[in-house]
User: Fold this.
Amino acid sequence: MRRAAFSFLLVVAVATAVPALALQHATEGVVTRVDSAGKKIAVKTADGTEEVFKFTGKTAVHAGEGVKTGAVDTYLAGKEGTHVVVHYTGEGGEKTAVGVEDLGKDTVKVGKGTITGVDKAGHTVTVKTEEGSEETYHIAKDAAVDTEHGAVKGTEYTAKKGEKVSVHYTDEAGKKVAHFIKHF
Assistant:
């Protein structure tokens, strides 16, 4: 799993190096449409908006243990309803996917709140939810964090108390594992 995650991040890093210094962002949502002819995928995000991303032969797909490039349309064909994290460059209607991570169907949950604690050594962040409870999330090694300055890898994320975030996570072996964190 570590090798696959590293390979995915390496492919994403190489793909993003092509448009020199292009700011990369990330978003999480559910695949609603795959347009092979137009080379586009549509993703409905947690706030209900639909975002459309172009893909190229260099767009990486990470699914479980493997990383593929140039297979977005064939891999996602028939997988509408699948949760994904899309790493992309560009703005507005000109967003280009450089990496797509498949999180599976019906697995991702979203928690929103304010960061109240950080354990850098344990790679966890504690969030006081909008409901008032505190939840601790383990940050996955291949997690993406979208900040106002662009996307960073979960291993490079420096959470700060007081930040308002949404955490997109899965339950794994009794732990809440964050795969995508977005500042708001």
Observations:
- The radius of gyration is 16 Å.
